[in-house]
Structure formats: C-alpha cells, structure tokens
Design brief:
With 319 residues, the protein is of the alpha/beta class. The protein folds into two domains: 224 residues; 55 residues. It contains eight helices and six strands, in the order ααβββαβββααααα. It has a six-stranded mixed β-sheet with strand order 1-2-3-4-6-5, sandwiched between helices. α3 links the parallel β3 and β4. The protein is elongated and about 95 Å long. The chain starts with 17 loop residues before the first helix and ends with a helix. About 5% of the residues have low confidence.
Length: 319
C-alpha cells in the first residue's frame, strides 16, 4: 500500500490505489466484470475469462531465489488469437495486471526496475505453464500489463507494447506468445478515446471522470466495493497495521540511535583519555618511543594508530 494512500478515506481511493484495486478484483460479484472491461479496452478485442486470481505468489521453488507477488493473474482466451498447433484449439493467455502508483525519484529505478520486473514476472509465470510431456507449442501466451500514472518512456503515449523482434530483419517478430504492455494514465497519443477515458478514471476515480455508459457501470461497481462493510473494516485494519509497523520502525530507529549515541560517547571518551595521556607524558619529557610503547600496550593500538595519535596531540601541545 502506497504511503499517501494510507491517509485517504476509503471514498477517495482510486482504482490505481493498491488496496482498492485488489478489493475490486477479489470481489466475487464485480471482480471478473472489471477485469473483462479493463482487458477489452486495453487490447481492443473480445476477451473470454476463465479464472481471476489476486495477490498470487510465484517462486522457482528455490528459497534462495527471489519470489514475486502479482496483483492480478487472469486466465482465459483473448480473441483473435492463434490456435494451438497440437490440438487446434485457441490458446489460453495468462495475463498479469499490475498497478504501479508510485514514481521513484531515481531515474535508474524508473528505467530499470519496472522493465526488469516485468521480465521477471513473465519468466516466473512461464515456469509453471507446461506439464511434463507437453509440447512447447502448447505453452499458453503470457501478457504482462503495468499501469502507472507517469510516462516511463517519455513519448506521451497512453500505451507501449513490447514483443521480441529480430534485429537483422526489420519487422520479423519472434511470435513466442510473450508480450508486455506499459500503460501511462497521463498519455495523450497512441490510443483510442475509450482507452484514454478509462486510464483517466483509473487514476482519478471520481464522478467527473465518468464520461461513458461503460464507465458508469464501472463506477457503480467501484462505489459498491468502497461501501462494502467488510472492505471498509479491512481498510481500517490495514491502516492500523501499517501504523503499528511504522511505529515499530520508529522505535527501532530510536533504539539504534541510542545505541549509536552510546558508542559515540565511548569513542569520544576514549579519545579524550588518549589526549590527556599523551599530553601528560609530553609534559614530563617522556621520549616519543616510550610514549608509543605505552599507547600500544595500554590502549591496544597498532603502531600506525599510536603514531597518528601522537602526531595529532603533539601538534596540539606545541600550540
């Protein structure tokens, strides 16, 4: 859940907010309807949904490697699509939909994290799509969609679609069934009016952005989820939990600060003791060699550090 999201009343949450998006999709009455509308608008084709799952965790099975949690994974058929070369049936497509609300300040994060994250998501989805003995031609298509309120690629487009193409032969597509789409809710070009209206509503889910009959249906759906008593209780519990985590973090930070302060105080006291020891010995005209021996023995210093302290405080004694 985004930091700013935690301070909003549930009535002000937008579809782009992680909590509301998740609750919409998980809603038994409205979830599939919303995903159907979303995919149909983005892909401009008919969509047949067989299953929708939220907050799915995917791993390689190795606890030493990173796992991922996907917002929404949809299994179904997107038409028109190629037919399975083995069975002749239309291929299923697994679609992962992610809402990425926060834009980090670091340019490197924006360019590398989201792009590479989409690659990891695609790879981990692929791992579980073929059973032993199945032909590679039977592997379902995979589509990753990331929706965000900023332009990752700076071309002012609403939609950026990526597939694998041959570098040596322009226009030659690999056609391996893998595709990634990045949606920019603030984009102005490269998409239909319906897509732009939907993206604007996703970012700012208010009455003023309900500009079509389809969006009115979606807005009623969103409103119903916002007003659901169980969802409202879950949201309040989420806020309380987040606040507890933050307070625990603050307390840990304060404790670390106290421990650091103790260490700094001990170190400062040690330096003061070293200074007094060296100045006293210099006043008594003890030889430098003898002072170095004492420093190494009594303060457990290396010869190099003992010399450094002696030089530092010798200069001070000469002032």
């Amino acid at each position: 859940m985004e930091k700013n999201e935690m301070h909003k009343p549930i009535e002000e949450l937008n579809v782009l907010d992680d909590f509301l998006f998740r609750e919409i999709v998980m809603d038994k009455e409205h979830g599939e309807e919303f995903i159907h509308y979303f995919l149909k608008t983005v892909l401009e084709c008919e969509v047949s949904i067989r299953e929708v799952k939220a907050q799915m965790v995917y791993t390689t099975g190795d606890p030493n490697l990173r796992a991922i949690r996907m917002d929404v994974v949809t299994q179904g058929t997107i038409l028109p699509k190629e037919r399975n070369p083995v069975t002749g049936e239309k291929k299923e497509t697994f679609v992962d939909v992610e809402m990425q609300k926060q834009e980090k300040d670091a340019k490197k994060w924006k360019k590398e994290n989201l792009r590479n994250r989409s690659r990891l998501y695609q790879g981990l989805l692929d791992v579980g799509l073929l059973k032993p003995g199945q032909s590679f031609g039977e592997i379902p298509n995979v589509l990753i969609i990331i929706c965000m309120p900023f332009d990752l690629f700076k071309y002012d487009r609403m939609i950026y679609t990526f597939q694998h193409y041959c570098e040596e032969v322009p226009g030659l597509a690999l056609e391996d069934g893998a595709k990634r789409i990045f949606l920019n809710t603030k984009g102005k070009i490269g998409g239909r009016k319906e897509l732009q209206e939907m993206l604007q509503y996703i970012e700012n889910s208010i009455d003023e952005n309900v500009v079509s009959s389809e969006l009115k249906t979606i807005h009623n759906l969103v409103t119903a989820v916002r007003q659901n008593k169980e969802v409202r209780v879950k949201y309040m519990l989420s806020i309380e939990h987040e606040q507890e985590i933050r307070e625990e973090g603050r307390e840990e930070g304060r404790e670390e600060g106290r421990e650091e302060g103790k260490k700094e105080g001990i170190e400062e006291g040690r330096k003061e003791g070293l200074e007094a020891f060296i100045l006293d010995n210099l006043e008594e005209n003890i030889s430098r060699e003898r002072i170095l021996e004492k420093l190494q023995r009594r303060f457990e210093l290396s010869e190099e550090k003992a010399k450094a302290y002696l030089e530092k405080y010798s200069d001070k004694a000469a002032l």
